[in-house]
Amino acid sequence: MQRATVPVPVDADLGNPARMWAYWLGAAEYLPVDAQAADHTATALPRVPYFIRSHRAFLRRVVRHLVGLGVRQFLDLGSGIPTAGHVHHTAHAIDPGCRVIYVDSDPVAVEHGHVLLDQQERVAMLRADFRRVEDVLGAAQCQALLDPGQPTAVLLIDSLPYVADADHPQQMLDAYRRALGGGSYVALSHGCLDDELAAGFARFEGLFGIPIPPLALRDAEEIAGLLVGFAVLDPGIVTVPQWRPEAVDRHTHPERFPGLAALARAR
Prior knowledge:
By secondary structure, this protein is an alpha/beta fold. It has helices spanning 17-24, 32-44, 48-68, 87-92, 107-116, 133-137, 140-145, 169-180, 195-208, 220-226; strands spanning 5-7, 73-77, 99-104, 123-127, 152-157, 185-191, 214-216, 230-232, 238-239, 259-266.
């Protein structure tokens, strides 16, 4: 199958991406330059804020579902800033005993995370490249908070598009699966190829003249290929809004959403 890549704009002069995400999510952890960059981005890509909020809504739904399945340990890879409504808020609303580790390589996201999580029990922020499985799981935060005898949920909320095929994402997921053992889970959401989105990226480049590096966007078959060794649970690999929607979710044509979601259990 022909691999699909669509460019995504990233440039230091546009503000920090993690703080732009916070702005789009309605959080407070951003600066005026980030708000300006986010607003400029939305002129070329008006659906991006909706996409970001939809992935966050999926995160909350899947965390609640996992707590209902008995999971009390969460490893959020590529977490961004742990703003209000993130994993620990959602999980602790059900069971304050849940343990959460956020992992991000962006020093800005990690710095905000340390401030936000100061004095928080059972929650940690780790600066690491989540592609390096041994570095993540060998870190002091993981050693302290993750009980190897209990199931862990690995969360990849729109993070895998930043992992190129050359970085072997399937092998990475398999390494987490083998290290965390049977009964653990992986929950992911993943952007996929969309002509309108691709046109928006091109429009952004034309408007602002920013170099656009590639972003790997995968279809359902490719995502299934990443989950070898896992059993995908109902409702399968579906669009993000179609994964166990709740009454508060409001989407027009959810089947057209350019992003897929899945929850899978390690065999």
